[in-house]
Specification:
Radius of gyration: 18 Å
Helix content: over 70%
Number of helices: 9
Strand order of the largest sheet: 1-2
Order of helices and strands: HHHHEHHHEHH
Strand content: under 5%
Length: 231
């Protein structure tokens, strides 16, 4: 039975992604964002569980990518679609503009297909992982819901949203080596970058809450730069 446990957690990721989509398209973006967080937790847990139980399979890998395509492929496109619908007035910009949000979904599919066939990505990533991309996008409704910094007019500006779509789509498929949060040991010497990232992430989240998420992903990219330069 133990070899099926990681797949069960992967299915939980998929379920959370489906539930996120239903809430997003119903206009309840904040609730959808919480389901995205649950999907990300399940996505992290299934790999952790598979390594702990020392089980793996080709089906498990494919199932993970299929689940990720929903939770971290369709979902960010849907969020961008809804935010552009809110930010675009009927007389201001073309009605088709919100559909450009699904460009992120297309590049997420490319990212996942590339990951499944790229032998270089066994212990690290090349390009921004789809969960990291989706967490940035899903944080926007949470920032809007609480808006402690008065960022609503900025976030809902079509120019910013379209800029984010282009930036995130490019990062998903960029030849940019990024470290993975996979701990083979708990020694500081082996995991300095990971421990530093986790400590700074905790501090940012405590101070800024949802507004910290884009900064956390930026921090993730920046901490990977020395490794990229070394190559």
């Amino acid at each position: 039975m133990k070899r099926y446990l990681p797949n069960a957690v992967t299915c939980l990721n998929l379920l959370c992604g489906c539930l996120a989509l239903t809430h997003i398209f119903a206009g309840r973006l904040e609730i959808g964002a919480y389901f995205v967080a649950a999907a990300a937790a399940a996505d992290f847990a299934d790999g952790l569980l598979a390594r702990a139980l020392r089980v793996s399979s080709a089906i498990g890998k494919d199932l993970d990518s299929l689940a990720d395509m929903v939770s971290f492929g369709m979902v960010p496109g849907a969020v961008f679609f809804e935010l552009l619908m809110q930010g675009v007035g009927p007389d201001a910009l073309p009605e088709w503009l919100p559909y450009l949000g699904f460009i992120v979904s297309i590049f997420s599919a490319l990212r996942l297909a590339k990951f499944n066939n790229d032998t270089r990505q066994t212990t690290s990533f090349i390009g921004l992982p789809t969960p990291a991309c989706t967490l940035v996008v899903a944080s926007l409704p949470l920032i809007l819901a609480h808006d402690q910094f008065g960022l609503a007019p900025v976030i809902l500006h079509p120019g910013l949203l379209l800029g984010l779509i282009v930036l995130l789509s490019g990062l998903l498929v960029a030849e940019l080596p990024l470290f993975a949060l996979k701990f083979k040991t708990l020694r500081w010497a082996d995991n300095r970058r990971r421990f530093l990232f986790l400590l700074l992430t905790a501090g940012l989240l405590l101070a800024l809450k949802a507004a910290a998420v884009p900064l956390v992903v930026l921090l993730y990219v920046l901490l990977s730069v020395p490794k990229t330069a070394a190559r």
